Amino acid sequence: MSTTIVASALCDETLARLEELGTPQNRKVYPRHGVDGPLFGVSYANLRKLAKRLAPDPRLAADLWSSGNHDARVLATMVDDPSRTTERTLRERLADVDNYVLADALASLVGRSALRDDLAEDWTTKPEDEWTGTVGWSLVAAQALDSESALSDEYFTERLSYIERTIAVAANRVRHSMNGALIAIGCRSQEMRQAAEEAAGRIGKVKVDHGQTSCKTPDALPYLARVWSRKTKGRSS
Known about the structure:
This protein is mainly alpha-helical. The chain contains 13 helices and no strands.
């Protein structure tokens, strides 16, 4: 668990600003998405605006994360410097994750760092570990969507095979992230599209409990069809 003491004046000022930006409506909505703990209820639009003004600032990120406040932790992933963050820090933060909103935010930070590929490999080995797997498979999706990645088709084929073997027994939100990774792999190339669609056909409907929200896990086959239809139109225009 993270143990850094919140001490900086900038952190205090930022927490006060977050409190001002929070809304009663968001404080009602966020718990429906699994957020259970201190929060102000700040919209992502306002978090991004604030992050743009503050980033990059690893010390502030550490202090914000250590506050334990949900909005502050999401902001911490936005203001941190991915080129300077350490594996130890990221592992400590992962241990604090207890909802998918924060898991997605942490995955975004890790995905921008040089540690992405190593941690993607490590954090996708235990499909029953909900938050580790959620972050890990989000990293695989980031790998697949990275046009500059040197990872081979063989790597992604192995990822598809693992998804197909384990998605049925994976934890709830891991299934959602695995499905997202499958779709991302299918967006990578025509060859990977075929492999992803074949895997999706064998897997069938991916069931995820989204609680008291209107969120849905997309069906891979129609989603990929739409993606490739847009790609084809873009090339012909």
